[in-house]
Amino acid sequence: MGFVLAKGIHTADGVLCPAKSKSLPDFGIHYLADELIVGDRRFRGGKSKQGSRQAILRGVLMLYEAGFVDEAKKLVGHLASRKVFYKTLQEIVAMHFGLTDYRLRR
């Protein structure tokens, strides 16, 4: 799921988010979020602009999916907070699937 979101690949969108449902099952997304910010993740960055946040998180997703988990977790730290992490992930998912209001259930 991380690769799909990071690269904007839409070939499986119809299966992941059927057009009639306008909702997205959270499979894979919860797992990614939990893996990337598990434990005492230190958010030391000040990145709060939407474009910067999304670029960082897309990089995080690509690193994670390529097997560079430690590097992905370090890059997450460039975001300002856990709240910013979740907000950005929700924005990327909503944008990818064309959803007007997507909220990751936590």
Annotate the secondary structure layout:
Blueprint: H1 2-7, H2 13-16, H3 29-37, H4 50-65, H5 69-76, H6 82-97
Helix pairs in contact: 4-5, 4-6
Sheet-strand content, in percent, reads under 5%
Give the overall shape.
Answer: globular
Number of strands: 0
Order of helices and strands: HHHHHH
Q: Low-confidence parts lasting 5 or more residues at pLDDT below 50?
A: none
Radius of gyration: 13 Å
Structure commentary:
By secondary structure, the protein is mainly α. The chain has helices at 2-7, 13-16, 29-37, 50-65, 69-76, 82-97. Helix 4 packs antiparallel against helix 5 (69-76).
Provide a compact summary of the structure.
With 106 residues, the chain is mainly alpha-helical. The chain is built from six helices and no strands.
Any key phrases for this structure?
globular, mainly alpha, 106 residues, 6 helices
